[in-house]
Amino acid sequence: MIYKIGVDVGGTFTDVCMFNQITGDIKTHKLPSTPWDPSEAIGDGISQIMSMNNVLPDEMAYLAHGTTVATNATLERKGCKTGIITSKGFRDLIELARQTRASLYDVQVDKPRPIIFRRFRKEIDERIMYDGSVLKAIDRKEVEKVVDELKDEGVESYAVCLMHAYKNPAHEKIVEEIIKERHPEAYVSISSDVLPEYREYERMTTTSLNSYIGPIVGKYANLFKQRVREMGMSVTPYINQSNGGLMSIETTFEKPIRTALSGPAAGVSGAAYITKIAGIKDIITFDMGGTSTDVCLIQNNSPKLTTSKAIAEFPVRVPMTDVTAVGAGGGSIAWIDNGGMLKVGPESAGASPGPVSYGKGGTLPTVTDANVVLHRLNPKHILGGRMKIDEEAACKAIEENIAKPMGISTIEAARGIITIVNSNMARAIRVVSVERGYDPREFTLVAFGGAGALHAAKVGKDLGIKKVMVPSNPGILCAVGLLVSDIRSDYVKTNIADFNKENINLMNECFQSLVDEGNAWLDAEKISESQRVIIKHADMRYFGQNFELSINVDYDKIDENNIEEIKSLFHKEHKREYGYCREGARIQIVNFRTIALGKVSTVKFEEKPDGGEDASGAVIEERDVYFEEANGYVPTKIYNRDALKANNTFMGPAVIEQMDATIVIPPGHRVTIDKCHNVMISYEKDI
């Protein structure tokens, strides 16, 4: 078995990357997504890239896939009919939520519609206390009655979330057992398995969402597995998680909520991998696709993780790559609001009908159409000539929908669209950097996705970022990320205690129980000892605080020699996050976390031959391209990226074209091709 394949499904295109483990050769393929059935484009893409390169199914050693099924099912409220079983008095917790709200001063804003209606939420009269002791025993007959009622209502899935089950899961286990006895075909999630940590609201929403999407994701994963088998492959496919790791199809059935932000996480993993090879430690990823732009900050080659994300306005407390998304992509639609102001997004033309210039029935102007009008994007064809572009249709759409109503020229309208979408994306980068205590000027902006390289240099300049990197295959970097991601599972245990010498044994016992869980999972995944890594984190806070900071515990065991070092790390992180620290103050540990990793074989990128500074041999044509810096169209050299060689260098204005992306180099920017064929763009001067 020779080949590894990664497949990423986006809102507009599906990307496929195939790696030859013997030669190091990488092949890429891109085709339109099929929103009505994502697996259709996946199967077609795999078949096509194998056929194009004469690869047989039995030569496939590895297959990984990033999915949006969980996210879409939640956002579109298309999950299955789900029932909640909870402790007496907590039936309405999922609607009561928290005091915090998205629109603080809007008294008329509607709360998100609950994913589980009230008649499907049932209470049982039991209670476990905060310390795990049983205050009131569970009544099996009462549980049986509740399960029968929900079954008669047509419930397909159950979410069991009892008070303090993270401390003592006994009652939840009994409820799960009864459900499986009386409704064996139903899907069941219990909070002590999905999220064994305190804060009952987040535990309930996470468990409920896991059950809500469970059958949907399970059905999709089964179809994906079946399609792989029908293609003649014997490999067991992996699914990407929101934390950037991979998990088997079987684990996906049990914990589908872990795939909630599967796609964006793969791109972050890919960016972290290629920048480490290039010797760059601190980056901000800039993944602009057809529907949205995702950004993430990576420091010391380690992506930031969070457990405070929300999907469809419901908090999901599972570890996720800390990606901030904004509705700004190549397919984002430009429109005029009631006040006559030009807006871009968040609505997208998607894969169908797509931008007007794609000629697939789209009628509303998009960011892609503006780039075509300004000749930043090839006005004749893209995807290496496989897709024709209709420049005239793009001009007409912008003129009729934007330019005429606003009383401006088509060129001004197109320029306005680009300016607004750039501003929206720059705002997202400030969220992950400036608003969290980081100076973006100290980072390299890494642009990928189908449209990232079109906008990165200008967005970087607006933020004061002087270095931009465009990987060798920017349009399919998410698919590359799937080839380099490790197999991963996260574990958590709540046990609130003072972080001091008296509790060292308690803390080590808590960590060891999670390490044992991780090793048991790695055993089931058939990961050898040499490929295993266990990482430990502690969620810590000052006594009296309501939220915690996650601190890496890079020791086999906590002891009297290193406990002060861990405290010092907490103080330092607290000062960076909040601007102050209280050395000597009482510190608590709240959650113990471990990450179990199964390391995958790496993808080695071939170094390109040194071609010297002269890049003239890669010039394929010249066309007039609009640049804001020049306030008009200027003659611009168009380069074929495949013809560029290591150490080639040239100044903008320029455009670099390749099958999966287009790179725009504004005036005043210098391009250098590094040894791994990354395009390094540095801002040098104004013109």
Note the gap between the termini: 54 Å
Q: What fraction strand?
A: 25-35%
Mean pLDDT: 90
C-alpha Rg, in Å? 26 Å
Percent helix range: 25-40%
Major β-sheet, in short?
A: 9 strands, mixed
Low-confidence segments, given as residue ranges, are none
The counted number of beta strands is 37
- The count of helical stretches stands at 16
Give the class from helix and strand content and strand pairing. alpha+beta
**CATH fold descriptor of the domain at 77-217:** Dna Topoisomerase Vi A Subunit, Chain: A, domain 2
Jot down its keywords:
Nucleotidyltransferase, domain 5, nine-stranded mixed beta sheet, 31% helix, 37 strands, Hydantoinase/oxoprolinase family protein, 16 helices, 687 residues, alpha+beta, globular
